[in-house]
């Protein structure tokens, strides 16, 4: 690539909003409205709702609601998003591998990608000898609802497929959190995370392969989280999350 | 010991200082989540009245987190400067507010700072309106130095924040160049690393230092890794200007961040020993934010704004070059909307300044908060009037690594122009030499185009 000559050429080197131009000290109108459009889409993504019947048809799944009755409460009360609503129960399936599909902070990426990922995981896990429970769809849910669901099932491990907080340039990102011996009260340091699963990020096939590797390593170790060291080069673990924000 | 005040014929009683401070706090979602917020507007104003009548000296006798259990409390009380406090020892919290808005001047506030505790300034902020938070902060002068001079009257500095989702050197360099073309970077050129390991840290530090050195930019660089990673990098001889760390207001939240006062002291000593500062030796950079202690379940039933002020006691122990609150980043469960973020940003700035810190603010929001660019414009302008030491500069306000919105390089130009502020003097002189002080050329200056 040739060296940049013009200010706007900087855009060749990054997806960041460089080389936008300048009118006085402000943004040119087009760049300003590009930003407003991206923010509008991100805001709508936060308030997007899972199409549960469609997902259920694709996954053959059970559905549970969290204890957060609506989106606003969900945003204000993370504790409620970690619990199942009163009165819900699941048929126990001791020793199984549980897959939870949760809306998290953005439903759209989960809606689009979770069916294919759940399918890939299920066949991979069965091939590795696991009894895989039918996926559970969880609405208004945080990552830790997997602990409640996993405990109700008596699962040996749970993988929570969940929508990540939308950014301006990644609206549709999904993450997977893997927890060994799930039960309420597990901390985030006891999970392993694969993030940025989206078109243009990590593909469904790559994510599935990484998770299957982690599941095998977690079974050998008898634990997930910081004790489970990543020996695959580019897999992000919780302990590798950036400090500072 | 309890406190009480009567509002509308009802007597409101508060069991201890912790409850009094929490109930007096203007409403925010994090205190409701913690279950410590006032139950009614009347209870809140009763707490504010009782707090206004409380002598400042009381804060030296009642700790909100037990002395025996918490090294931050011990730091606050053991390092209190009684001589500096003496001139105000007779005042109540309300009298303190009146004095600050009235006769207090910059010189008096500088002398006073070591005599103030975090809880005193937190209490003050709870009975301040936004204009009080602005006016009091504007009287404070805090000047720090490393390779340039930050915090001089009439200046407003920018941290150039060229974050890249995979720490790609070209992506970082393109953003550094964009920021320099738009007058940003005098506070620091500071990258949040995508991966916190020592090899990556050394690589990014090397890149930033080479850029700074090649173009003789009078500024400092930082990669905002965990302090233990930065210590390893220093042992390997990496060019570390500033040591960064996120900190909080209790021993327990700092443990959740993997730090202690002794670890911070070790890192501070190591950075001082490198002697890389040319104008001064302020070599620490801290970030804080309301809600971090609750997030780590380390809040001891104390309201989030008081805990935030206690984090400033940790910061000032190490004479930092830069401190900023990441006010809108922690999330809507702590600060729900633009109104709450605006107030918290101004509180954090004033309280940090009164305690003697070079206070900046990350004027920012996440996409699940009820906030937008209008809220950021308002807070940025208010902070500029309040004399904020620095704000962030992110290309087009969009941080593609951390997935949140902060202030842009353009925003920095706007606020400087609107309020007649300039960059740090050494950096301004560099911009003038490079022909970048007044305009951004469409054709890149040959000198800087060579970066890529």
From TrEMBL, chain A:
UniProt protein name: Ethanolamine ammonia-lyase small subunit
Pfam annotation, one family: EutC
NCBIfam families: PRK05465.1
Annotated cofactor note: Binds between the large and small subunits.
Catalytic activity: ethanolamine = acetaldehyde + NH4(+)
EC numbers on record: 4.3.1.7
Signal peptide (residue range): none
Family: Belongs to the EutC family.
Pathway field: Amine and polyamine degradation; ethanolamine degradation
List of residues binding adenosylcob(III)alamin: 143, 164, 193
GO molecular function: ethanolamine ammonia-lyase activity
Cofactor(s) demanded: adenosylcob(III)alamin
Primary location group: other
Localisation per UniProt entry: Bacterial microcompartment
Keywords annotated in UniProt: Bacterial microcompartment, Cobalamin, Cobalt, Lyase
Subunit architecture: The basic unit is a heterodimer which dimerizes to form tetramers. The heterotetramers trimerize; 6 large subunits form a core ring with 6 small subunits projecting outwards.
Functional summary from the UniProt entry: Catalyzes the deamination of various vicinal amino-alcohols to oxo compounds. Allows this organism to utilize ethanolamine as the sole source of nitrogen and carbon in the presence of external vitamin B12.
Entry annotated with the keyword Phosphoprotein: no
UniProtKB/TrEMBL annotation, chain B:
UniProt pathway annotation: Amine and polyamine degradation; ethanolamine degradation
Reactions accelerated catalytically: ethanolamine = acetaldehyde + NH4(+)
Main location: other
Subcellular localization, as worded in the UniProt entry: Bacterial microcompartment
Main enzyme class: lyase
Entry binding sites for adenosylcob(III)alamin: 193, 245, 295, 401
Names of required cofactors: adenosylcob(III)alamin
Record key words, sorted: Bacterial microcompartment, Cobalamin, Cobalt, Lyase
EC number(s) reported in the record: 4.3.1.7
Keyword Lyase assigned: yes
A Pfam family: EutB
Transit peptide recorded as keyword: no
Binding site for substrate: 159-161, 192, 287, 362
Cofactor note: Binds between the large and small subunits.
Lineage top rank: taxon: Bacteria
Role played: Catalyzes the deamination of various vicinal amino-alcohols to oxo compounds. Allows this organism to utilize ethanolamine as the sole source of nitrogen and carbon in the presence of vitamin B12.
Similarity-based family: Belongs to the EutB family.
NCBIfam families, sorted: PRK15067.1 (NF011649)
HAMAP family: EutB (MF_00861)
Subunit text: The basic unit is a heterodimer which dimerizes to form tetramers. The heterotetramers trimerize; 6 large subunits form a core ring with 6 small subunits projecting outwards.
Protein name per Swiss-Prot or TrEMBL: Ethanolamine ammonia-lyase large subunit
């Amino acid at each position: 690539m040739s060296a940049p000559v013009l200010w706007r050429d900087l855009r060749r080197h990054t997806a960041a909003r460089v080389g936008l131009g300048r009118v006085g000290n402000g943004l040119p109108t087009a760049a300003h409205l590009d930003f407003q459009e991206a923010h509008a889409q991100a805001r709508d993504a936060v308030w997007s709702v899972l199409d549960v019947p469609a997902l259920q048809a694709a996954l053959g799944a059970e559905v549970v609601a969290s204890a957060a009755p609506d989106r606003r409460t969900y945003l204000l009360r993370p504790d409620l998003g970690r619990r199942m609503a009163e009165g819900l129960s699941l048929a126990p399936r001791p020793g199984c591998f549980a897959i939870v599909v949760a809306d998290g902070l953005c439903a759209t990426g989960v809606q689009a990608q979770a069916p294919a990922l759940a399918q890939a995981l299920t066949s991979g896990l069965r091939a590795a000898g696991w009894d895989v429970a039918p996926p559970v769809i969880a609405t208004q849910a945080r990552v830790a609802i997997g602990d409640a669901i996993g405990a109700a099932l008596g699962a040996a491990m749970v993988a929570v497929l969940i929508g990540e907080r939308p950014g301006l340039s990644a609206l549709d990102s999904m993450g997977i959190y893997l927890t060994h011996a799930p039960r309420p009260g597990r901390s985030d340091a006891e999970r392993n995370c694969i993030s940025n699963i989206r078109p243009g990020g990590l593909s469904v096939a790559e994510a599935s392969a990484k998770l299957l590797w982690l599941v095998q390593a977690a079974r050998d170790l008898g634990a997930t989280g910081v004790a489970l060291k990543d020996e695959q080069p580019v897999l992000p673990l919780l302990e590798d999350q950036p400090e500072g924000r | 010991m309890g406190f009480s005040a009567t509002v509308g014929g009802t007597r409101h009683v508060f069991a201890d200082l912790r409850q009094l401070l929490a109930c007096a706090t203007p409403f925010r979602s994090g205190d409701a989540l913690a279950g410590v917020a006032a139950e009614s507007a009347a209870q809140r104003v009763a707490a504010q009245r009782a707090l206004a009548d409380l002598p400042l000296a009381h804060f030296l006798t009642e700790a909100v987190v037990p002395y025996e259990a918490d090294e931050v409390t011990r730091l606050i009380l053991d390092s209190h400067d009684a001589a500096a406090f003496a001139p105000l020892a007779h005042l109540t919290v309300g009298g303190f507010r009146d004095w600050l808005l009235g006769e207090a001047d910059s010189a008096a506030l500088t002398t006073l700072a070591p005599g103030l505790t975090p809880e005193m300034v937190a209490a003050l902020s709870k009975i301040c309106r936004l204009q009080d938070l602005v006016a009091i902060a504007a009287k404070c002068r805090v000047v720090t130095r490393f390779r340039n001079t930050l915090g001089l009257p009439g200046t407003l500095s920018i941290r150039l924040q060229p974050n890249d989702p995979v720490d790609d050197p070209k992506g970082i360099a393109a953003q550094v160049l964009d920021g320099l073309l738009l007058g940003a970077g005098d506070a620091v050129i500071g990258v949040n690393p995508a991966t916190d390991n020592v090899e990556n840290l050394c690589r990014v530090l090397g890149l930033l230092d080479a850029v700074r050195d090649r173009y003789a930019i009078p500024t400092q660089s930082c990669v905002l890794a965990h302090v233990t990673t930065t210590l390893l990098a220093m042992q390997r001889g990496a060019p570390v200007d500033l040591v960064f760390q996120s900190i909080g207001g209790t021993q327990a939240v700092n443990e959740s961040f993997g730090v202690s006062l002794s670890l911070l002291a070790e890192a501070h000593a190591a950075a001082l020993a490198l002697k890389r500062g040319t104008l001064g030796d302020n070599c620490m950079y801290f970030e804080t934010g309301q809600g971090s202690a609750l997030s780590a379940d380390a809040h001891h039933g104390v309201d989030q704004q008081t805990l935030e002020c206690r984090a400033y006691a940790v910061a000032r122990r190490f004479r930092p070059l830069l401190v900023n609150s990441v006010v809108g980043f922690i999330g809507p469960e702590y600060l729900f909307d633009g109104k709450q973020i605006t107030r918290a940003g101004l509180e954090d700035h004033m309280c940090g300044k009164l305690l003697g810190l070079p206070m900046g603010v990350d004027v920012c929001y996440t996409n699940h908060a009820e906030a937008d660019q209008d809220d950021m414009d308002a807070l940025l302008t208010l902070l500029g009037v309040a004399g904020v030491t620095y704000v962030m500069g992110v290309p087009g306000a969009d941080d593609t690594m951390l997935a949140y919105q902060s202030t842009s390089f353009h925003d920095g130009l706007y606020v400087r122009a609107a309020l007649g502020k300039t960059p740090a003097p050494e950096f301004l002189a560099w911009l003038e030499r490079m022909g970048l002080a007044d305009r951004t050329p469409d054709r890149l200056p040959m000198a800087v185009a060579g970066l890529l």
